[in-house]
Design goal:
alpha+beta, Glucose Permease (Domain IIA), 9-stranded antiparallel β-sheet, 6 helices, Cell_wall_metabolism_enzyme, Dup_hybrid_motif
């Protein structure tokens, strides 16, 4: 597995303010429940123990309390941070009294498999990342947060998709297992969207933005409104995997749709924004190009709707989509 992608996915799963495909508010994750066990980078490609187990065997091994075997399949950096004793303690603390789990999400991209499970009560959760050799690159035990009151509300504005062609929902939905953003009200209903072909989001050199299928794709206004903010002069991150944590949203456009609803289009390509503040746009108008600027670890679009244009104090709103109830993690979306 490419080391950049491996590192990116671990950041994704750390729930510490960095997403696999970017975060709008660096401080937003402070409102999320913090995980008890988080891995770091995996060992080199192919270094897998002879007795390695498959991802679908993880839950059984937990129930059998075979923690040594699980620990043996974790990445080397994880073991530098957590001893076997500490690992057992944390697993016992979080896994105690849970007799079963249900698979919530599973997808494979860039030779990395993501799995998420929850217990029957929907409280205790497990998230795991496995590489192509079933090495565990990330493992989190957590307690799920739920916000049913805001989940039930939708925007008054009806939104269309902000792109053309086929895209993939990396993060999206109404729980933290399928949407990293969910724990923070500033971006609770945000989406991180990439382009995937044949199981990969890139082809060629994974350190170059131009290798990613999403990079340079047109980004469109999702509804009519007035442009109230643009940023267009931030460098795209080079190499891919290096984040700009000082300019979180990177190049971006914010549109006021009235009714206290503002759409955000973040991490755009430098110099690509084709609108200016004060412009009135309609749905489908081109705003710029997909990029990798700001707190983003690969080219993607961060899209959300919120109740203000203030990045750090806004409250995210659940989108009323024109052609779907919602778009959740793992879905391929085909726009006209």
């Amino acid at each position: 597995m490419n080391n950049i992608i491996s590192k990116r996915n671990l950041m994704l799963l750390s729930l510490a303010g960095i997403l696999t495909v970017g975060s709008l508010a660096a401080s937003a994750s402070a409102e999320s429940a913090k995980p008890e066990v988080v891995s770091a980078n995996s060992v080199s490609k192919g270094a897998v123990a002879a007795a390695s187990f498959r991802p679908d065997e993880l839950l059984k091994l937990l129930q059998q309390e075979k923690y040594e075997r699980i620990y043996g399949q974790l990445g080397a950096e994880f073991k530098k941070q957590f001893s076997l004793k500490d690992f057992k303690k944390q697993v016992n603390l979080n896994h105690k009294n849970v007799t079963s789990y249900k698979l919530v999400s599973h997808f494979l991209i860039n030779n990395t498999s993501y799995y998420a499970w929850k217990d029957p009560k929907g409280k205790k959760t497990i998230q795991a990342l496995f590489d192509r050799n079933n090495k565990i690159e990330g493992l989190i035990f957590n307690t799920m947060q739920q916000y049913p009151e805001t989940d039930a509300k939708r925007t008054q504005t009806t939104f269309e998709l902000p792109f053309q062609g086929k895209w993939f929902v990396y993060w999206g939905g109404t729980n933290e297992l399928i949407n990293y953003h969910y724990g923070a009200e500033q971006q609770r209903y945000a989406y991180d969207l990439i382009v995937v072909n044949n199981g990969f989001s890139y082809k060629g050199d994974a350190t170059k933005n131009e290798s990613y299928f999403a990079f340079g794709k047109p980004i469109l206004a999702a509804a009519a409104g007035k442009v109230v903010k643009i940023v267009n002069d931030i460098q795209d991150n080079k190499p891919v995997g290096k984040e700009n944590t000082e300019q979180i949203a990177g190049n971006h456009v914010i549109i006021d749709h009235g009714n206290g609803e503002f759409s955000y289009y973040a991490h755009l390509q430098k110099g690509s924004v084709s609108v200016k503040t004060g412009d009135v746009v309609k749905a489908g108008d081109t705003l710029g190009k997909c990029g990798n600027s700001g707190n983003s670890s690969e080219p993607h679009l961060h899209f959300e709707v919120a109740n203000s244009a203030e990045l750090y104090t806004t409250k995210s709103l659940r989108v009323h989509w024109k052609d779907a109830d919602d778009y959740e993690q793992g879905a391929y979306i085909l726009a006209p």
